[in-house]
Hints:
Strand content: 5-15%
Distance between the termini: 54 Å
Oligomer: single chain
Radius of gyration: 26 Å
Largest sheet: 5 strands, antiparallel
Helix content: 40-55%
Mean pLDDT: 84
Structural class: alpha+beta
Number of helices: 16
Amino acid sequence: MPHAESPEPVIDEGILPDAPAEPASSDESPNGSPAGSSQSAPTDHVPTEKDKMNLDNMFDDDEDDSEFTSSSAPQPQLEPAQSGRVNDPEIMKAFYQRLFPFRHLFQWLNHSPSPTNDFAHREFAFTLQNDAYLRYQSFPTADLLRKQCIDLNPSRFEIGPVYSTNPRDRKTLRKASAFRPLSKELVFDIDMTDYDEIRTCCSGAQICERCWTFITMAIKVVDKALRDDFGFKHILWVYSGRRGAHAWVCDKRAREMDDAKRRAVAGYLELLKGGDKSGKKVNPKRPLHPHLERSLNILKEHFKSDILSSQDPWAESDASAHLLKLLPSPELVSALRKKWDSAPLRSSESKWSDIDSIASTGVGSSEQFFAKRLQEAKQDIVLEYTYPRLDAEVSKKLNHLLKSPFCVHPGTGRVCVPIDTRKVEEFDPLAVPTVTELLAEIDSWEGKKSEDNVDEEKKIQDWEKTSLKPYIDYFRGFVGGLLKDEKSGKREREEDGDPMEF
């Protein structure tokens, strides 16, 4: 299925044969931008001496843990009502200037406070306001990434792998094979559109509190498996900005996985298939794998409250017909169909209870292993309606790009904020702030400060004045934990040395 949140990347021909091919209508110029089109992307910006001087004055030194100061660039005063478009260029530029946490993003991808190739050789891809797609961008520092975002003013940008050389220099290499991806976070994508056949409240791009529980269930199951079964520790979950969530597994061991290992992890977590002749999409081997047993224990309460009660998936006769196809005994199915046809308004909760109540009367019990087969069928039904529906293709390739955290979704204006898994059931996607709301919050804060004649003893970053603060605080804590482990791991490797050295 297509990746609903990220457009398929335009690939430079001849470099990555296993990635989607470059559209025939666009030729990439040497600087990485599409050439020969009125919709072509801006060329790479070469900083002048004046730019460099401004950059030096614009940012604090790298040891300062605070974000870029809000006085680093002209601050336009924007009213949200000035434009009906959430990706209005002036609004987006103000967002990059005042709110985007570039320094923390740098530390997250760099795995160190000081610049390394983990960041310098990392690919960034920009979707510009004219829908041009600019690939193979790279930056030695957070300052230059920030400057490029302000100059190009993309509607969004995506993060790719760390390459064997600087992505900007790939065309200077004698052999295309010398340019290859080395590492990238193991990523997962959960999109609500994959649940359209079982959710009854919304469809397509629409979401509500009732159907968001599908994403909550998926996060719980996948996060538990990644931590308990694979031993991963640093897993960042991010709201996609509209109808889904992305996971970034940031442990060094995960980042260094090749495609075969990534496919294996994705396959381990994948359960739902296309379906057999009866439409059955869940056919696990018995006895159930411990991961599925654990998942059932997590999901069974959600099935009662969020599926049977809230979604009421079998209220319609055609939907209840699908349920009957998933049951093992023709005799039981016939009895249930007769009962439900006589009471067409029967709820899904009642229909689910009818299965056991009619089976307890002995209907179908003459069939061999009936009780066992019925129990297994009911387990499979619970899994079909609650188990995560992953876009597995996103996870299988080292060179796949994924939208950066804290980007703004152009369709909703909402910021792609991290999700705290310790409070995952409290997360409300409809309460996530939009970019226009955040800019209005800054103006409101500064207006109140001016009225109160408050003097700032300590410089307060613009994001600290808004409802984005708790999300950036969480991200800073996550990055701090990752850097701590990276530092201790590096020290251990240095102390162990080469085992073959005498």
